[in-house]
Model the fold of this input.
Amino acid sequence: MEKKQKSHFPFRINILFFSVFLLFSVLILRLGFVQIVYGENFKRDLERNEDITIKNPVPRGKMLDRNYKEIVNNIPKRAITYTNMGSDQEEMLDTARKLAKLIVKKTDKLTEWDKKDFWILKYPESADAKISESENELYKAKKLKDKDLYEIKIKRITKQELKQLTQEDLEVAAIFREFRNGYKFTPQIVKNEDVTDKEFAVVNENLQSLPGVDTTTDWERSYNFDNTLKSVLGKVTKSDEGLPADQLHYFLSKGYNRNDRVGKSYLEAQYEDVLHGYKSRVKNVTDTAGNVVDTEVVYDGQRGKDLVLSIDMELQKKVEKIIEQELWSLKRLPGTHFLDRAYVVLMDPKTGEILTMAGKRIVRDEKTGRTEMIDDALGTFTTTYNVGSAVKGATVLTGYKTGAITPNTYLSDVPIRIKSTPEKKSWMYLGTLNDINALKLSSNVYMFRTAIRIGEGNYFPDQPLSLNPNSFDIIRNSFASFGLGTRTGIDLPNEQAGFKGSSRLPGFLLDLVIGQYDTYSPMQMAQYVSTIANGGYRMQPHMVKEIREPINNTAEVGPVFKQIHPKVLNMIDMKQEWIRRVQLGFKKVFQEPGGTAYPYFKGASYSPAGKTGTAEGFYDGPNRWRYGKEPPGVINLSLVSYAPSYDPQVAMAVLVPWAYTGQSENKANFRIGRRVMDTFFQIKQK
Done:
């Protein structure tokens, strides 16, 4: 009988179980080791929540003049801030009470609503008692919401009850208001005005018991030249303003916080992307309870880049002083009761750099009743006026271009008489003259006859005059190529193009070509005369010359980040011989006896050239409402010039609106213009 074969199956099962036992034993030992040795570390990692990056603001870039003199800088100031890291209302209120014992907080910004809201927090039982049983029933039935009950309480708090709030309560309320105005994980300034050394130190010492509170260095804009050019430099929102409401989404999309300060006007706004800098970034790691367990500085931040302006502040200040002196002096003359402003623009005709943009305006202080002079540099490009004969250079060149006249065309200065239209004439009968002498002597009639030829009209004295309706467009388009009646393209917002008269009656075309129909700004006048001075290139005017990298904690000028190169907007479609002929006429205006500017500029060593302007208009200033539908007639005075005539280094526009009424010896345009040109070349020689 064969012996039964022994089965190996039980043995294999035992081996398998034993192996599993060993593996589990090793796993348990390993888990025990990990639990004992690394357990606390893993627990902390498990309790960690998301990383939260807080962006802290940095100072804005500086503004310097063309010679690197500081115009705008930042003054450091102590500040106390609060960052809500997830605290609830009770925690915030508790922190506000503690902080109120350490600092003095002004309460002037507290509204009645703020006070009532705080009263509810301080007297919750009394506030709840203001809700009737029926209102509570509606609330339980979900027909009223928490918001509804809150508003009912607010409305029922009396003024007598608000008097229960002490001065200490109001300070707590003011601090709590700042806490709540902030956004989660975004630093909110609680106090940055008049923070004393003691307040700064004592808050620093108690930061551990003031969750979310911190001390830091804030800043505010400082102006080294007082109010000089301040209206153009622009403004920055205050710490309690934050982002402008009308641009909120734009700035949020660019990574700004809601309470960030930004440029809100002119250069500060135009170059916000350059001036605002790069915020410092601090990464806070919080646990599941929202407590900060680790802090890491990700980026130290960098203040904004610096703007180097094309302005010469020494020249700017002197030009402003000239305007002020002349305005006050002119106000003593009869017929100057409407005179309240004057403007000067100095521009490099070859590059478009603005060397000076000065404006001054006389206003009455509503509180004191006294008159004072304020900066109105903005008016050089935001206000427009009839400028008179200063535009005649563009008229002559338009006449050449259209074939209405040719160089050395002679025309009679006999007055123009159109049926049913007042006689149109020059300031006196000037005989028969050519184009150059028409500019020198400022003949209106020469320009009228040129306009009639442009309009393809047949003029007969005392008869109706019919012109091509397109002649208005022809002349205006030509004027625009010089910069008249169109935006100059200056790197500032809110530039005005001017008013274009709507009527197309023939008489108004004649007014157009002598500068008494459409309106132009001083900046347009400067661009126009620069175009003639440089041989036909319309240069884009610009205030910023360079953008420089900042160097922190030093007054040194950083390396160039970007240079603003001259930009030609267009070249006028004119022959060089035509332009040279108008340049010759402009030179005779200033340098030859009989020229309209010669009495005031004779003997000038810098070889000036240009054109004078006197415009009859109607007063449309701030007090026009007093005169109903018939405003009084006024005279606007203008002057455009450049020098030296053979190699222009500066172009100038002077405009004095509403200079006088009736007859006057007021020559404000000449007096201001001569003093300004003298000053420019005196500084240049230094």
